[in-house]
Amino acid sequence: MGDLGRVRLHPWFVLLSVLAIAAGLWRDVAVLFLLILLHEMGHAAMAAHLGYVVEEVSLLPFGGVAKIAYGWIGFRPRHEAVIAMAGPVVNLALVVFAYVVHALHGWDDAFFHLVVEQNAWIVLFNLLPGLPLDGGRLLRAARVRSVGFELATQEGYAVSLAIAAVLAALGLASLAAGHPHLGMVLLSGFLFAAAWRGRRDLAMETVRFLDAKRRQPRVPERVRAIAAPAHASIRDVARQFAPDRYHMVYVLGPDGAVQTILEEDEVLAAVFAGRWTERLADWIARG
């Protein structure tokens, strides 16, 4: 069992909270804070249960980010999917709890609807299929074994950029209509910034994935074949590697015939020997 880590308020959360309190919505902020904290604790508790060390939980306006110490969470699809679902499941459980308490003890209607609506918005937003949202992690977990870690991650961030654009357009439309929705614009900005940073850091994340892959204990895995022309670089091949699979690389000559077959361990050894940009043909010729 791991550690649940410390809790930190992200500047975006503080900014929106100050604006909401200034507008007299202090109760909304208090409820949102509690619901987001419980949502993120769901992620952290599941991660800790699976043996990860949660260094920090950062609360954001729509949810949060659980910072996990160096590990294989994004490199292990099953774990990523289970941890991603833990947060929304907590919110859904809170909705059921609210209905039960309201039915048995007659909660104030306004407060009851506030709790249900905020939980619903947290779940709906977090299940949008873009990274780093929970839905994006579920999408990556579903795709990563078939397309590889780097491409599945690229797809997740591309979807986030599209979602951010839609949210920005809706926010501007609400402004033009005379009913400005500041929260939508701010969420769009956050999502865009997070996706941009993720895309910027993707090459390093791929290297971390490959490093974890070469270090993990060998267990029975399905074999995944990759066909690559001899003029392709080692990077072109390695960036297609996927978790939970052992790769065999078929190197093709100009005529399309198989020249040789490389094992995953050979490619990973070349990557961390500094031959990242070397062509397969040159590497094979060196022996």
From TrEMBL:
Belongs to the peptidase M50B family. The keyword ATP-binding does not apply. Pfam families: Peptidase_M50 (PF02163). The chain crosses the membrane at residues 12-38, 58-75, 82-104, 110-135, 156-175, 181-198. Keywords: Hydrolase, Membrane, Metal-binding, Metalloprotease, Protease, Transmembrane, Transmembrane helix, Zinc. One of its GO terms (molecular function) is metallopeptidase activity. It comes from Alicyclobacillus cellulosilyticus. Its main location: membrane. It is a multi-pass membrane protein. It is found in: Membrane. This is Peptidase M50. GO terms for biological process: proteolysis. Its cofactor is Zn(2+). InterPro entries: Peptidase_M50. One of its GO terms (cellular component) is membrane. Residues 30-102 form the Peptidase M50 domain. PANTHER family: MEMBRANE-ASSOCIATED ZINC METALLOPROTEASE M50B (PTHR39188), STAGE IV SPORULATION PROTEIN FB (PTHR39188:SF3). It comes from the Bacteria.
